[in-house]
Amino acid sequence: MVSLYREVPLETDAASAWETLRDSRNLARVFAGVLTDVRVEGDLRTVTFANGSVIEERIVAVDDAHMRVAYAVRGPNFEQHAASMQIVDESGGRCRLVWISDFLPDDRRAMVEPLMDAGCAAAARNLGR
Known about the structure:
seven-stranded antiparallel β-sheet; START-like_dom_sf; Polyketide_cyclase/dehydratase; Polyketide cyclase / dehydrase and lipid transport
C-alpha cells in the first residue's frame, strides 16, 4: 500500500481555511488548475480534473472539532483509496493543510502523486482567498 503525506503551510487563519475546505462545493476553487468541476450529491462528490479524468469520492467524515475531512475514492482504478485533509492551527494567524492518501495498487502512485503535489500547490495559492 502506498501512503502519501503532505504538509502545506497556508497564509491564512485556521478557521477561515477550514470554513472553505469543509464544504466540498468549494473544492474546484481551492484546487483551481487541478480541478475544473465538483458536483455534490449527499455524501458523494464527483470531481473533474483538468486532464479530463472524472472520479467519484464518498465523504466519510467531516470533523469540525479537528478540522478534518475524510473521504474514499470509488471506482475501478483502485482496490482501495482512503484519504484525509486536515487544517492544523499555528500561531500568528497561519495554519497548514495536512493531506494523507493511502491506496492500492502501488502502481497508481505515478498517477496520484503528481496530482496530489499539484493540488498542494493550488491549495497554497487559493485556500486563503
